Structure formats: C-alpha cells, structure tokens
C-alpha cells in the first residue's frame, strides 16, 4: 500500500501551482506522471535507491523528471514523504529532518504543534491537535 503523507501532498500541489503558471496542461501531466511513478512501489518497494543524505535502508527515493520522490518503507507500507526538485538543497527541506529521528515523528510533531494534521496517528493515541508529542507520550505514529 502506498500512502501519501500530508507534506508530500503539499509538495505535489506546489509543483502543480508552479508549472500551471506557464501551462495548466503540463502541470496536470507532471503531477499525474509523478503519482503514476509511485505505483511501482506497491509491488517493488525497494526499487528506489537509499537516500544518500540520510543513509537509512528504509528511506529511499525514485525519480521522475527533475524530482526526487522520497519515501519510507515501514510496516509493509510505503509512505511518500516528500517530492523535491533535484536542484534544491535537500538539507533545507522538511524531509531532511529524518536524520534526527523517524521522519513521521519529526514531520507530524511539527504539524501537530501547528494544528494541521493528526491523520497518521495511531487511533488510540491521546495526543490532540496543537499538543506537542514527546518520546515518552506512549503515542506512536503509524
């Protein structure tokens, strides 16, 4: 199963908006091609290479046009975590924070503080939007 995390969805929307300023047709085509490219991950999750900046076997990337599609393999699922232009400095992106801890905890910790998402929290998690998650909270992000 391939699951698109909210930050990756935001990246895809930003790509669409940027390209659409020149051509709505190509904006739609590029976004659709990126989405189609991720379908291979259902059957072959390890088909991408390890992200060199992170050096974790479960955090990988595939490419479409000039974009890096960053994903994590976790619990038999593939989470698309970022779509980053190849010329962009990876260390300045939201995906780079995965070096410090699990990408989901880092990204969704930020989103929870901002009150934007709790959609990937385990159902029995007691942390609410706007509340900061701590390592000892007993709450796990799935």
Question: What structural class do the secondary elements suggest?
Answer: alpha+beta
Q: Report the uncertain regions.
A: 99-103, 105-142
End-to-end gap: 13 Å
Rg, Å, rounded:
15 Å
Number of domains: 2
Order of helices and strands: EHHHEEEEH
Second-tier CATH architecture of the largest domain: 2-Layer Sandwich
Task: Tell me how many strands there are.
Answer: 5
Might you state the CATH topology name of the largest domain?
A: YaeB-like fold
Largest beta sheet: strand ordering: 1-5-4-3-2
Structural features, described:
The chain folds into two domains: 2-88, YaeB-like fold, CATH 3.30.2310; 100-142, no CATH class. With 142 residues, it is an alpha+beta fold. It contains four helices and five strands, in the order βαααββββα. It has helices at 6-20, 24-37, 40-43, 103-114, and strands at residues 2-4, 49-50, 59-64, 67-74, 77-85. A five-stranded mixed beta sheet has the order 1-5-4-3-2.
Gist?
By secondary structure, the protein is α+β, with helices and mostly antiparallel strands. The chain is 32% helix and 20% strand. The chain has four helices and five strands.
Considering the chains and any ligands shown, give keywords for the structure.
disordered C terminus; 2 domains; YaeB-like fold; alpha+beta; five-stranded mixed β-sheet; single chain; 4 helices; 32% helix; 142 residues; globular
SSE order and pairing:
Layout: E1 2-4, H1 6-20, H2 24-37, H3 40-43, E2 49-50, E3 59-64, E4 67-74, E5 77-85, H4 103-114
Parallel strand pairs: 1-5
Antiparallel strand pairs: 2-3, 3-4, 4-5
């Amino acid at each position: 199963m391939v699951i698109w995390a909210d930050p990756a969805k935001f990246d895809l929307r930003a790509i669409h908006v940027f390209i659409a300023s020149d051509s709505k047709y190509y904006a739609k085509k590029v976004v659709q091609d990126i989405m189609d490219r991720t379908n291979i991950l259902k059957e072959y999750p390890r088909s991408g290479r390890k992200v060199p900046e992170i050096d974790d076997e479960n955090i990988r990337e595939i490419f479409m046009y000039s974009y890096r599609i960053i994903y994590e393999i976790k619990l038999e699922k593939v989470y698309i975590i970022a779509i980053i232009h190849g010329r962009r400095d990876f260390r300045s992106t939201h995906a780079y924070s995965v070096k410090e801890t699990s990408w989901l905890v880092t990204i969704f910790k930020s989103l929870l503080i901002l009150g934007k998402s709790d959609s990937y929290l385990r159902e029995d998690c007691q942390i609410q939007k706007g509340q900061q998650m701590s390592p000892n909270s007993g709450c796990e992000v799935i």
